[in-house]
Design goal:
2 helices; 73 residues; elongated
Length: 73
């Protein structure tokens, strides 16, 4: 579990570094927006996966995960 926490924190720091390099005059706003949308995306993923699992089981949850993965492209 510690390795997963470390990996997530590393991804956040890396993403925030890239964003602040892109707009160094607005670091607080950029990081705040990043964390806001990250939190909203996490909540949407949790709610939709729970709802899908209740309706369609693991197969539905897996299919939803696949759709989320395709949406990143």
């Amino acid at each position: 579990m510690i390795a997963l926490d470390f990996a997530v924190q590393t991804a956040h720091v890396s993403n925030q570094h890239l964003l602040t390099n892109a707009d160094p005059d607005r670091t607080s706003s950029v990081i705040g927006a990043y964390m806001l949308f990250h939190s909203l995306g996490s909540a949407l993923g949790a709610i939709s996966t729970t709802t899908t699992h209740a309706a369609a089981g693991w197969a539905g949850s897996s299919a939803l995960g696949g759709l989320f993965a395709l949406g990143r492209r």
